[in-house]
Amino acid sequence: MRWIVGYAYYDRTRAFKRSFLFAVIESLFVL
Prior knowledge:
mainly alpha
C-alpha cells in the first residue's frame, strides 16, 4: 500500500516537471 502512494507521488512530480518544462519551452518560443 505504501509503494502505491509513493509511486503516485513520483508520477505526480514527474508530470509537474514535464508540464513545467513545456511551459518554459513555450515561453521561449513566444519570446
